[in-house]
Structure formats: structure tokens, C-alpha cells
Specification:
The complex is a heterodimer of chains A (333) and B (336). Chain A has 333 residues and is α/β, with parallel strands linked by helices. Chain A has 11 helices and 7 strands. Chain A has one domain: Rossmann fold, CATH 3.40.50.970. Chain A has a 5-stranded parallel beta sheet with strand order 1-2-3-7-6, with helices on both faces. In chain A, strands 4-5 form a two-stranded antiparallel ribbon. In chain A, helix 8 links the parallel strand 6 and strand 7. The longest helix of chain A is centred in the N-terminal third of the chain and has 26 residues. Chain A is globular. Chain B is built from 11 helices and 7 strands. A 5-stranded parallel beta sheet of chain B has the order 1-2-3-7-6, with helices on both faces. Chain B has a two-stranded antiparallel sheet with strand order 4-5. Chain B has a single domain, classed as Rossmann fold (3-Layer(aba) Sandwich), CATH 3.40.50.970. Classes of the chains: A alpha/beta (333), B alpha/beta (336). Chains A and B meet through helix 6 of A and helix 6 of B.
Chain lengths: 333, 336
Amino acid sequence: MVTVKDISGAAGLNRDQLLELYYKMLLARTVGQRERMLNRMGKGPFAVTGEGHEALQVGTAYALKPKHDWVVPYYRDIGVALTIGQTPLDLLLAHLSRESDISSGGRNMPSHFSDPALRIVSGSAPVATHLPHAAGIALASKLRRVDEVSAVYMGEGGTSTGDCHEAMNFAGVHKLPVIFIIENNQYAISVHWRKQAAVENVSVRAEGYGFPGVTVDGNDVIAVYAAMKEAVDRARKGEGATLIEGKTYRLVPHTSDDDDRRYRAREEVEEWTKKDPLVRYRIWLKEHDVAEERKLDELHERAAREVDEATDQAEKAPTPKPESALGHVFVED
Amino acid sequence: MTVTREATKTFGLTEKQLVEMQYKMLLARAVSVRQRMLQRMGRGPMTFSGEGHEAVQVGTASALRPGTDWVFAYYRDVAVALTVGMTPRDILRGFFARRDDVSSGGRNMPSHFSHRDLRIVSGSAPICTQVPHAVGAALAAKLRRLDEISVAYFGDGATSTGDWHESMNFAGVHKLPVVFVCEHNNYAISVPWRKQAAIENVAIRAAGYGFPGVTINGNDVLEVYGTMTEAVKRARAGEGPTLIEAKTYRLMPHSSDDDDRRYRTREEVEHWGAKDPLVAYARQLREIGVLDEKSEKDLNDRVNAEVDEATDEVEQEPTPDPASALRHVFVEREGA
């Protein structure tokens, strides 16, 4: 078997790391599917999942330093949360609105990730409100003279907002250590990209803010990782912001409350299903002798088991006590 | 070097029209100067000088059809207002907060121009809120299939706002008949451009919205006029928006409440004072034989007389009746 450091195109990752990427992607896929099923069974109120986005989310998050860098995700970022260190149990406790949910004690909508220890910053539902937060956190890092970078995630719909422009312009002027990651899946719920903006690649706008913008194949986890690593290095060295636009596709409807048959053809979904980042990466791993079929199957089984166990545990966990309803609004000493 | 009439691009303007542009610039200058002095004499509350911006404002506004095209100005746009058809009396009524002020019945801050018949749309004080309005008006024109365009005026500071981005993007996606005019004077009050954005020319951002952006010398009224007529033609032909970034300079502080000695040098102000668009255009008109010493003096005398008369009359006019304080908030209909 060829040693991994001889493998070209692995962006400097070793065998364990390459497999860890795969496992995180599997976990993200499985958690997403589980949340959708629990919702359809009437057990969870709502599901917003990221099937199709795994390579982009895991590949970028993997280049960050958990508990050191600041992560500002949006609601589709299950893969980011899991890669930074949240567990399937964390996510399912939130999904089922349980008392011990770390994100909000069962109060917030599911997929509103938040974790002080992991520096995953609590976000809101309105699109792109978290972008100025990420720029502010990066400003803090610069003023404090620490090498903690800020990574903020959004869909391409978020790029039309005023908040996006203000955050990016500010980051450009002050050369802040923030990375803007755009998960361009071509749809803002039902609004197609061609109705969202009059450009092909949103990354061209970075020039208007004075920092680099790149467009990558968002379904190629290693290409994504490489692009992110470069951006993180730039930020840590004080060279300022970067915009990474990852082209990908959402294989499922926007949320459990969306019927995507109303705005896109089944043929289009099938076309992109063939480009499933998990399938693609699995093939790459086998072709480059990183792992054999059996090992990869083991990882699938492990992910399934982990999510099953987490589901059982989460379902048994208590819901919040009504008397605690006013808790978690103000800081409690 | 002699500049000849043939060598000077005058974009199809007649001599009368060329002189009219100088007249409007002189008028705007005189109205700005008069307001500054009256304010310092305690006779008016506040003023926003447009001195230095006259070429951008007159050059662009001269390419519009008053009463047909929709004008979304900001507080520095006294020369736009005068070119589209407001008079010194109209402006001064706003300044003195007189009852018969067409902009707001003496209620709004001065320089918040508004004139229904001239389609100068009432704006607010917060920066850039008028720009989404301009885009909405352009959308209306498109939906109603009317040959009306929209012009949005703003300073360089406005280009950092969320409202600006949302307007530009929407206009680009829907290919709307709107022209965006940035009066780039390098300062957002005291914030210099280099602290406002990490680029040299804001016009490059237009490409990110799918339409053309140009950077021009905003102190050359004919260059401004020529560029604007192109943009207007595009808009009327259904080809969509244009961003015009006109580089200019604000010869006075931001407002009567600003001390610009705190953030810019006298040398810089003098340097730009030497590039005064009024002086440059007067020279140009003399060189091509459209103006001579006498006609130039007549023009200046006319302007001064007009502003003197307007000031004297308007200052005598009544202020609003306190009993009317709640009017002009809602639309007032007969029998309502």
C-alpha cells in the first residue's frame, strides 16, 4: 500500500486525517437524515439539514483550530458543528428541544448552533445577521493581538443582504482575520441564483472590498480544505480577509417545511445526486489506496451506530422545566 | 494652448444650453454661500454647502427630463434641485423654515429637497435610504412600461451601507432604468476614503452587480454631462443601470456644524479650490467664445440679484402656524 504522504492531491493531510474528513462527512449526512426522519415521525418539530453540503462544511471547518478560532455558522452547518467538536447527541438534544441542549437549553430553533467552549457563536434566524458579528470578532482578535481567526458561513442568498456588504467592506478596510465562506447551492430556498444576482461567481465581489475571492468546487473536500488552509494562513499572518465561494447543491428541500418540487425539476436533483460529495470522496479514497472497501464500510457502520445511540439518549433526556422559561436570557452568575 | 469650439466636446448642447449650465452652477454656488452667511448671522438654523459639487450636480441633472424622470437627491444636492427646476425661493423657504416651503411646509431640515411636480422625491437624513427608493421607482417604471428613469445621488460614504448594496444588486438583477451617481469628494464628513473602503475607485464594484461603472472627473461639467447622457440613454433603452463615480471635492465643511480644520489641511482645500469647477467652466466658455467679459459679468450680476431678491422676500414670509403642527404627516383627502 502506498503511504499517504506520497499521495499527490492530499493537501498535506495524512491517512488518519483523510479518513477523519470522511467520517465527519458521514456523521453529518447521518445526523441530517435522522433529524428529517424524526420530524416526519412527529418527534422533532423542524429539520433544516445539509445533505449535499458536507464536503464544503467539513473541508473548511477542518482547517480551523477548535476552541481557538471563532466559528460563526448558519443554520445548515451540521457538518461544521460536528467537525469543530459538537456531537450527534449535542445536535439531537437541540433538535428534540431537550433541557441539556448546549445550544440553548431547548429554547432555540434546531440547527442554531452555539457552544461557548468550542467558540461556536450563537446565531439568529434572519439571514446574514451573523456576518457583522464575525467581522467584529475578527476586529477583537486584531486589537487583542491574538491569532484567533473568525470563520463565517452563509448561503449565496446571504450575499444580497446589506449586512454582508457592511461586514465585508469593514473587514477589507481594516484587514481583519476573517474568512467568509459562501455555500453557493444555487437556491435561496426557492430563489434561483440568476434571480439573486447578475453575476456568475459571487467571489468577484471580493475585489470591490480589497481582498481575494476564490471559487472552488464545493463538492471536492480536499480542494475545499486546501483553499481554506490558505485563507486561514493569510488571516493568521495578518494579511486580512478572504472570500471562499464553494459551488455545491442541496440534495434535500430547504427545510422540513419546504416542498422543493415547486421550484426545481427532479432531473436536476438526480443530476446532482450523482455528484454526491460522499460518494465522490469514497471513490477518491479507494483510488488513492487510503482505505479499502471494508474499512470504509466500517466507518459507515460506526456513524450509524453513533447516531442511533445519540438518538436513543436524546429521546430519553428530559425536556426543560417550565419554571426555567426565563432562564438563559441574561448572564447568570 | 487655445481650446477651440470644434475641439471641445459639447455633446450637442446649444450655446444657450451651455450658458444655462454655468448659470445654474453660479446660482447654486450663490445660494450655498448665502445660506452659510445667514446661518452664521443666526438667521437660519443649519446649512449643508454644495460648494465644489456644482459640476457633478448640474452636469448630471441637465441630462434629465424634469417632471418625468424621478430624482432621489441627498442633502448636498442644491444644484441638482435648482437644475431640475426648484428656485432660490424654494430652497430658502426650506432654510428659513417658512410656512409655504414646498419641501415640507417648514418642517424638515434644510436641504431635504422635495417637489412633487418636479418629481424630486422627499428624502430622509440617514445616509443612503433614498437609494432603495430610487430603485423601487425604476422598478415601477419598468412594470408600468413607462419611459421614465430614476436617478439616485449619494456621497462616497453611502457606498459602505447595506442599503447601497441591496439597491445595486436588485437593480442589476432586474436591469432597472436607474442611474447611480456617486459624488465622490473623498470625505464622509471627516472619514477619508482610505478608511471607508480598501479600493481606489468605487466604480469597480458595479461589475459585481452585472452592470457598467465609470469613474470620471466630477469637476468637468461637460464630461459629467456627456457621461450622464450615455447612462440615461442606456436606461431608457432598457439596458439597465449605470454607476457613475464623479471625483470632486467639498470646498466647505460638511455642514454649518462641522469644523473641517480638525481633519484636513488648508493646503489640501486650497489645492482643490484652484480646481473650482465654476472657474474652470467659465474659462472654457470664454476660450470657445461662448462667453466674454461682459456676458460673464451680466450672468454673475443676474445671479446675485436673484439671490438677493429671493432672500429679502422669503425672510419676510410667515413661519408655519403652530396649530398646523400635525399636518403633512398623513395624506389629506377631501371629506376624509
